[in-house]
Design goal:
CATH architecture of the largest domain: 3-Layer(aba) Sandwich
Helix content: 40-55%
Radius of gyration: 19 Å
CATH superfamily of the largest domain: NAD(P)-binding Rossmann-like Domain
Order of helices and strands: EHEEHEHHEHEEHEEEHEEHEHHH
CATH topology of the largest domain: Rossmann fold
Strand order of the largest sheet: 3-2-1-4-5-6-11
Number of domains: 2
Shape: globular
Distance between the termini: 40 Å
Number of helices: 11
Amino acid sequence: MVVTGGRGFIGSHIAERFSAEGFQVMTLDIESGTEARLSPGRPAEDADRRVVADVTSAEAAREVVRFRPDLVVHAAAQTRTGGSITDPVGDARTNIVGTLRMLEAARSTGTRAFIFISSAAIYGEPSVLPLTEDAPHRPLSPYGVSKLAATDYVSYYRRAGLLPALSLVPANVYGPGQQAREDGAVVPGFMRQALRGEPMTIEGDGSQTRDFIYMEDVLEAVWLAWRWLSEGGGRAAGAPVAFNIGTGKETSISRLADLVEKTIGRQLGRVYRPARGGDISRSSLSPRLAARHLGWSPRVDLEEGLRRTYEWWAASIPGSAERA
């Protein structure tokens, strides 16, 4: 199989999971990827083969064709909302052209399954929650627009009979290995501040909500999606082309901060900053379609996921256990 974005938070976990399942894995990284140093467990570099290349390039496509994978999981992306606003052309090049390059490479090799990691940003500001897959798409940033365009291309390839493909639309993914500097990654930001004994920084007033989904649950969704596609699950007329991967529950950022304090057993306080442009006020994703077709449902609740994540951070940062 091929995993693009293999040095990123989600991609490195996917590579590790499928390698552990016995797959020969090639990870294809965009040149800016730096998250491998924080990857928990066996690093993605230890997979069978790793290539650093721009996913928008012909070189990257040739690497996929040479490898002739049964499965391609396309997780490589430009993920920074702010970066997409300042450089929408670069954002579109990576997220749209890069996806098309990988789709064409997979199609030309007769790949059995193509799984695209989309984003809840494709929905924009919701009118009804939790969001279902047929909800309106009104992205608020170029990042959301580019991920929506890529998701639509994946749907086209499937509906046109070009490739067994689907998109997974994860909510706010968190867990061990996620970098605090990642745009919008509130959980690792809180974890780092907790280990330093600093007040937690909240952008906005803290009333905004998100649907937090633990990485382990996302990996199970990818695995079940692979099985569903490889066994012909997408061939039936009207079969879904995209699945939400979320809990269906809203958690405010203020409530998240409270749970972090509960996890570490002490108060930290809050520092408030202006809300970021392009951010939505509320979000949660219904998992019903994934449950019906993939047999998937979230298993790790937020309190347990935060506990596991904090333990990883405490073990990974030298001297943090003494400061915590």
